[in-house]
Design goal:
There is one protein chain. The protein has 250 residues and is of the alpha/beta class. It has 8 helices and 7 strands; from the N terminus they run αββαβαβαβαββααα. The strands form 3 sheets. Strands 4-3-5 form a 3-stranded parallel beta sheet, sandwiched between helices. A two-stranded antiparallel sheet has the order 1-2. Strand 6 and strand 7 form a beta hairpin. The longest helix has 19 residues. The protein starts with 8 loop residues before the first helix and ends in a 7-residue tail after the last helix.
Length: 250
């Protein structure tokens, strides 16, 4: 499964150029029987299988070093009961030299190995995957793209969703007027054709706020809680400026 999509596009080029490195470890290599078993039935009964602590301990120790050793970096277990991955955590991980990701399977892993190695639990959201590998791919992609030298235009990252606690504003490109499949003409907002950079910035902020307020009340509540009266005044002024007609671009 690795590097999978991480071997392509920006992440793949950065991997080739040594901007970041990936080591995939086969947990079955640390099994202790001829069948390379990594799981067993759960104590207390129930459906499914649980990954064994002795096998996982050997894999983690060989990969990151013994529990409690210095310089291990962050150890993360991809789990639906963990902290939900957000851009703030992605930034933290991008500033960490080494991150070890444990991808579970079956019903999960023995709790004792999580405690022994101090693994953090991280989730992509309130849904269940067949294993931790797809979640790990998403996490790695989000982190790698923030590393210096990966993205062609470093300024792009500052304009993306969640960077200001908001969802991203709408984007448009040529043609300025486009007819859809039903023949309806759809025009780019006039402000984006005005050539007035301040009005464009004001419009983008106003749209980001509108979309966040409408679609993600949870994000909007956090954003509102962190704003000052002056921020709100600027936002209202920006919305009014964005609605004013402007000169045609030269």
């Amino acid at each position: 499964m690795f590097p999978g999509p991480l071997g392509h596009s920006l992440a793949g080029k950065a991997l080739e150029n040594g901007v970041w490195a990936l080591e995939s470890v086969d947990i079955r290599s640390f099994a202790r029987d001829k069948h390379r078993s990594v799981d067993d039935t759960p104590f207390g009964g129930g459906a499914g299988m649980v990954m064994r602590p002795d096998v996982l301990d050997a894999a983690l120790t060989a990969t990151a070093g013994p529990a409690g050793a210095a310089g291990r970096g962050r150890l993360i277990y991809l789990s639906p009961r963990g902290r939900v991955l957000d851009q703030a955590l992605v930034k933290e991980l991008a500033a960490t030299p080494t991150v070890t990701l444990l991808c579970g399977r079956y019903e999960g892993v023995d709790e004792r190995v999580l405690d022994a190695h101090g693994l953090e639990e991280v989730s992509l959201g309130d849904f269940v995957l067949s294993g931790g590998e797809p979640a790990a791919l998403c996490l790695i992609d989000a982190v790698v793209r923030l590393l210096p030298g990966v993205m062609g235009n470093e300024a792009t990252a500052g304009e993306e969703s969640f960077e200001r606690g908001l969802l991203e504003y709408p984007h448009y490109t040529r043609p300025a007027v486009w007819a859809d499949g039903q023949g309806v003409e759809r025009a780019v907002p006039d402000v984006l054709l005005s050539g007035h950079h301040e009005r464009v910035r004001a419009w983008r902020l106003a749209e980001a706020e509108r979309i966040t307020r409408d679609r993600r009340p949870d994000l909007w509540a956090r954003y509102e809680a962190g704003r000052t009266a002056e921020d709100r005044k600027k936002s209202n002024k920006g919305r009014r400026a964005a609605r004013r007609p402007g000169p045609e671009p030269e």
